[in-house]
Amino acid sequence: MKKSILAIAVSAFSVNAIANDHDHEHINVSALTGTQGKPATEHTVAANAGYAEMLNFEDTKVFQDNDRGLIVELDEATHATLRDRFVNLHEGLRLHDSSPDTVNPSLWRQGQANFSANGLYKVTDGIYQVRGTDLASTTFIKSDSGWIVYDVLMHDKAMEASLEFFLSNVPEGGDEPVVAMIYSHSHADHFGGSRAVQDRFPDVVTYAPHGFVKETVDENVLAGNAMSRRAAYQYGATLGPASQTGIVDAALSNGWSQGPDYNITLVMPDETLPSGDQEKFHEREIDGVKFVFMDTAGTEAPSGNVAYLPEHNTIWTGEMVYQGMHNVYTLRGAKVRDSLKWSKDINEMINAWGGEIEILMGSHSAPIWGNENINEYMKAQRDNYGFVHNQTLRLANNGMVLQDIGATINDELPASLQQLWHTNGYHGTYSHNARAVYNMYLGYFDMNPANLDRMTVAQEAERFVTAYGGCDAGYETAKSFFEKGEYRFSGVMLDHIVRACDSHVDARKLLADNWEQQGYQAEGAGWRNVFLSGAQEVRVGTRPGNPKTASADVLSAMTVENLLDFMAVKVIATKADGKDFTLAVNVPDLKETYFVELSNGNLNNIKTDELKKADATLHINKSDINKILMKKTSLQALFEGGQAGMSGDKSVLQTLAEVSTEFDEAFEIVPRPAQGQEVDARIYN
What we know:
The structure is a single chain. The chain is of the alpha+beta class. Among the domains are: about 5-10 and about 560-660, SCP2 sterol-binding domain (Nonspecific Lipid-transfer Protein, Chain A, 2-Layer Sandwich), CATH 3.30.1050.10; about 40-275, 4-Layer Sandwich (Metallo-beta-lactamase, Chain A). The chain is built from 25 helices and 21 strands. A hairpin with a 2-residue loop joins strand 18 and strand 19. Helix 12 runs antiparallel to helix 14 (about 430-440), helix 15 packs across helix 17 and helix 18 (about 505-520) runs antiparallel to helix 19 (about 525-540). The chain is globular and about 70 Å long. The model is unreliable at about 1-35 (pLDDT under 50).
């Protein structure tokens, strides 16, 4: 058989939603190591200058908090995990220079704040943080026998360097072990470095919130390929090292760790904390340290918690709050988060601990000290998510549609929130968060019949260009809007023209220039990266290559049902129609059995109490499935070695392979140039 039922799933899984390798079929992408970009236009200069006038630059408290408690700055090894990629911006970010014309001044200031996270910090007696080595920070809490670590970064090598740096420089207990590891929630930048901790301290006990393993896997499987491709845009994977015309920040920190042999790993939790339905506040003592955990599932992550440390009067907030507004909807794609529950859970934290709290610390940004400061901060964060939820629905209940709410929600923002830095839309913007709230309650359709049965994007583009009077006439009209600085509208026109008139070089150039200027004006880091990535692909067609595959740890966490569900997503219904079969699957090491049925072009599966009669029966251990997915063996080799077996009609596996697709990991998002049509490639060097 050419390809087995398991082999067709090999390319399925990516937990690192940021592509690390890039290829291109026409030009030498190895030369695209940076982004020079074009200058800001007079309209962008004016827009960014006007934006700066709305900002409260006299408020420098975040920089004071960032510097507080510094013990030692990062060393060479920890510096290399992240900060070395910002060498082009070091001087401007460090010296707090005013923003360049090509960067929104609010985003530039966020980059400066995040860049000042650079070392080992003492939070309070017995609590320390290493900040600036990855997208998240890692926190160490002194316990009776050693240390408890809260959140362990995104990659093993980054955590390994951070752990060594901590133990070598902490003024107390540097020779003591890490005895416990706690995951705040189910996103990779908080558990991906876990293997580095366990490798050094094999006896470490790991704790996770309710539903952690399931949610860690589920969020990234069925739409994983699309998420990875989209994430390359959101995080600017092809834009090269940071620069004034490229990446300047990742909102939560300057960026994420990268390097040779960096892997997202997952040490499975030894203990899972109870859900909020079971216990609203869960008290737990871990190696002599008292914690009061609160379940926050369904807010920033589908599985998560916060914790109060009563002996320290300190709250650990995970990613519920940070120095900015978070995503209610993330641009890479994910299920919409519940902004009302988010606001209410922050309110629960205030109600439970607001009277006694003295320190607030979390996964991102520096801690905040002082009861009054913390309460003001948390109330503003609470009210910010409440604002997005309540005002979106107020407008929707008065008939405003999704597009209009996204375009005007900023006009509804109270001055009290506008003047605060930590409510600004660096990660989640008011615009796309408001549209997420609308979508959560009302879906994508605005009830306008014109939007109910739209043509394909390509068909609409062709007809719009006809309405414009043709490619050249449309281009001239779009150019006039561009020259007036109306980039949002000219961008829509030019997108139509480039799709319908793919050989129109001037339109292609202008579309890229248009998106580039929109990127320069964007306050949100993700928005900036999306616009600049789109401009780059329109110009030279660069595109992400293979996403980083899941580690053995993550593969082992996937259920057989996950794998079977994903195989169903890969089936092409028109090819599969009329090729019905049934397959029983026996998984001895898990003592599980499944019944798989292809019918009406759809692949179904169900977990059964016992093996059901089927056209064929496959016997295979989950541990061996993992080896196939890691390309350490093949199904044929397992058959030949006797580790797997099959009876009945063996052709069903071949049938499944024949009706299944391989996803394009670099599918087109914007109209890329054909060979020989690259434009303005000189700006990338």
